[in-house]
Amino acid sequence: MKDEDIDEILKKAAQDTQDLDPLVLERIGDSIKPSLRPVRPLPPCG
Amino acid sequence: MHSGENLEMLMVRYQQGDFAAATVLVRHISPRLHRFFLAKSMSRADADDLLQETWLRIHKVRHTYRHGEPALPWFYAIARHIRVDHYRKSIRAAAGERELEEMSKGVSSAPHQVGELEALLAPLSEGQREVIAMLKVEGMSLEEVARATSSSVGSVKQKVHRAYKKLRQTIGATSPRKWRSGGLA
Questions:
Q1: Smallest Cβ distance to B168: which of A1, A24, A27?
Q2: Nearest CA distance, A5 vs chain B (angstrom)
Q3: Which one of A1, A9, B76, B142 has the fewest beta carbons within 10 angstroms of its own beta carbon?
Q4: What is the mean pLDDT of chain B?
């Protein structure tokens, strides 16, 4: 069995993974919204 | 939208307090992180909880994202930490759970449904599952995986090589056709 065959099997298995419940996404959005304010990012490295 | 440029621009806008950008990030990144948790032998309910916890952590430390750096490995690095924390907590709770198991004997429990991806990756070590999930399932580059796992590209390649060796044995020992047809008999 070639690496490409395993790639294909992995890809197929991933596609069959159940979709994420939209309610979970909604809850996440709701949880971060109240405290969403600008923050000062860390300076770039180097 | 895997191109890091868009993700990075959205991260900058998220840091500026733009809720629309935050929403796009949540919708784009969450399914990937959710699959990442599911690929690590986790129930759907646990994966949902960890995803929510991951976003709370992302939100808390969003200032630590440095402009110009690839955003995807930054997200996955946080998800990894959340998962490790969860694992440690579950180890600590193990003793208590054993007692609960004794108490709940006779009460039927519903084991979580094993997905095909989870079953496929089950024989792999923790580290191998992690890199395969990021590299082969999520399509991240070797460099991105190395950055997310705080390791080197060489180390990632070695894990992938060993994982494929094991997967080849596992799939060969069962029936390649079974996996290709997408059916877990």
A1: A1
A2: 9
A3: A1
A4: 84
> Distance (Å, rounded) from C-alpha A10 to C-alpha B138?
10
Please list, residue by residue across A16-46, b when 16 or more beta carbons sit within 10 angstroms of its beta carbon and e when fewer do: ebeebeeebbeebbeebeeebeebebeeeee
Region B1-113: CATH code: 1.10.1740.10
Judge whether A44 is closer than 8 Å to chain B, CB to CB: yes
Residues of chain B with CATH 1.10.10.10: 114-185
CATH 1.10.1740.10 boundaries in chain B: 1-113
What CATH topology corresponds to B114-185? Answer: Arc Repressor Mutant, subunit A (1.10.10)
Report ipTM for this prediction: 0.86
Structure tokens at B176: 């390649």
Check residue B106 and give left, alpha or beta (phi > 0: left; psi -120 to 50: alpha). left
pLDDT tens for B1-41 read 544 449 999 999 999 999 999 999 999 999 999 989 988 76
Q: Do B19 and A7 touch (CB under 8 A)?
A: no
According to DSSP H, which parts of chain A are helical? 3-15, 22-32
Alpha carbons A34 and A43: distance in angstroms, whole number = 26
Q: Tell me the residue type at B76.
A: Y
CA angle B71, A35, B37 (to 5 degrees): 45
Among A8, A25, A33, which would you mutate to test the B interface (most chain B Cβ atoms within 10 Å of its Cβ)? Answer: A25
Burial pattern B94-113, b for ≥16 Cβ within 10 A else e, equals: eeeeeeeeeeeeeeeeeeee
